[in-house]
Amino acid sequence: MAEQISGDWEAVARAGDALGKLAEFNERYAETIGQGAATMIPAGWDGNAAVRAEVYFSRLTRALTAQVDSIRSTSGQFRTLAAGMKELAQAIQSLCQDIADALITLTRAVEGERMRAGTPGTNPFTVPEPAIVTGSWLRSSRICTPHDDDAVRAGLVS
Fold first, then answer.
1. Which residue has the higher pLDDT, 54 or 5?
2. Burial level of 69, CB count in 10 A (0-12/13-18/19+)?
3. Sequence spans of domains, the chain
4. Considering the entire predicted model, what is its pTM?
5. Most CB within 10 Å of its CB: which of 14, 79, 97, 128?
6. Per-residue pLDDT for 147 more than 70?
7. Helical spans, DSSP H, in 118-154
8. Residue 153 to residues 33, 35, 105, 129, 148: CA-CA distances in angstroms?
């Protein structure tokens, strides 16, 4: 349930890592092209094609280098977003567990009062059996599974 609300933070973290690697690639690629341009274009090569090749490699190197800071910044933002999503998922999970614990405690208290009064669920005008209502809610919200020890001990799920 928490992941449905907060999203897949692990995928966002992987995207942030991928962007970081892309920034590193662009930086190294630009360096390689910048260093290699001199050796790829022969010293004695003159004319329009030589000028065009120099301009092309120079522009490509500048374009790749210009992208590095933006990509790194976006990578950092993705990592920050992933951390926030993870914290939200943990908070939602904790809140759901607190609600389930409160419902179990409430169920036990209501049943205790009924037992003390000697009328465990016999009055048709009383609230529905809290164990049945609570168990149904826990199962339908997927907070509690049939394997949840607290819920089994409380008789909420079987």
1. 54
2. exposed
3. 2-153
4. 0.58
5. 79
6. no
7. 130-141, 149-153
8. 68, 71, 12, 16, 9
